[in-house]
């Protein structure tokens, strides 16, 4: 696999731009399955990711982050909006044109085991996309499989084994190898370490970081907590009920969170510095409301400890340039 030249001309042009992206799932009722409402899993997202960058998408279960990832790689059709990837609008591309562009856009799943056919040997699973897209003959594909297995920290002997013969961490390495073998530019990492033991999580994060440097990869890294993303991301977008409520550089988000929801997520993250342990805490109570019936105004007002009347009536806009926040009363102090 060819290493990409990291000192190649840097461009300010984003690799991918998401504009007003919506993904609604219909709720059907009655004998004729009439659509009575929609679950608004993704509700008007706008963001861009630059080449070589990692943007983390963070939020509790049910906030729409996995639907966002699956819609971006076109495992789901968007309801509305644009996905501009390398100048092509994926929301309108179809057939062969879409397939060609999709090769450059891969996904790593949280549970690699469910995405690996248990009846196939790892070598065949990895060679499959190369052969299916006629990107290599059998011999070349085999060579590439052996090479990629070494790159992700396994050995070429592993190609003859079946997925059930591997540990969780090794299976995630196979998932990474499968995403990497087509030499993509962007990888959506959908909670790739959430199901792993803490000690293994660090190894997989290190591997992803090394691969990013080596092959100049761009990541959309989806996670439900802020722990893993501090280490791997350049920027963080915090999602709540289908919308981004705060987005900014990782350092700024950790030092000066402006949205009460971001602050609450940070409070769930262990604080190594004892002097910061008494910082003001916002503890999340209750569950995320149903995206089929989101609260009016600011959708976080039902759980926000500083909500006021206006929050129940007016939806705050995402405002600000470097660190944008959607809140009528953004936090000022930060955690330092
Ligand atoms: Fe809380 Fe109001 Fe800000 Fe929403 S807009 S996060 S309810 S203060």
Describe it for me?
This is Peptide ABC transporter substrate-binding protein. One of its GO terms (molecular function) is ATP hydrolysis activity. Belongs to the ABC transporter superfamily. The chain is an alpha/beta fold and 336 residues long. It has a domain at 16-104 and 184-325: Rossmann fold, CATH 3.40.50.300. The chain has eleven helices and eleven strands. It has helices at 65-72, 95-102, 112-115, 122-132, 138-151, 168-180, 198-215, 227-232, 250-255, 260-267, 309-313; strands spanning 16-29, 34-49, 54-58, 80-85, 88-89, 105-108, 186-190, 218-223, 235-240, 243-249, 324-325. It has a seven-stranded mixed sheet, sandwiched between helices. A four-stranded antiparallel sheet has the order 2-1-4-5. Helix 5 (138-151) packs across helix 6. The longest helix has 18 residues, at 198-215. It is globular, with a radius of gyration of 21 Å. It binds iron/sulfur cluster (SF4). The site of iron/sulfur cluster has 13 residues, from loops.
List the helices and strands and how they pair.
Elements: E1 16-29, E2 34-49, E3 54-58, H1 65-72, E4 80-85, E5 88-89, H2 95-102, E6 105-108, H3 112-115, H4 122-132, H5 138-151, H6 168-180, E7 186-190, H7 198-215, E8 218-223, H8 227-232, E9 235-240, E10 243-249, H9 250-255, H10 260-267, H11 309-313, E11 324-325
Parallel strand pairs: 3-8, 3-9, 6-7, 7-8
Antiparallel strand pairs: 1-2, 1-4, 4-5, 9-10, 10-11
* Neighbour order of strands in the largest sheet: 6-7-8-3-9-10-11
CATH class of the domain at 16-104 and 184-325: Alpha Beta
First-to-last CA distance: 44 Å
Count of beta strands: 11
How would you state the average pLDDT, rounded?
Answer: 90
| Largest pleated sheet | 7 strands, mixed
- What's the shape? globular
Strand content: 15-25%
CATH topology of the domain at 16-104 and 184-325: Rossmann fold
Rounded to an integer in angstroms, the radius of gyration calculated over CA atoms is 21 Å
What is the CATH homologous superfamily assignment of the domain at 16-104 and 184-325?
A: P-loop containing nucleotide triphosphate hydrolases
- In N-to-C order, the SSE pattern is EEEHEEHEHHHHEHEHEEHHHE
Task: Using the 3D structure, state the CATH architecture of the domain at 16-104 and 184-325.
Answer: 3-Layer(aba) Sandwich
Class of secondary structure makeup: alpha/beta
Which ligands does the model contain, each kind named once?
iron/sulfur cluster
How much helix is in the residues?
A: 25-40%
- SS field, number of helical segments: 11
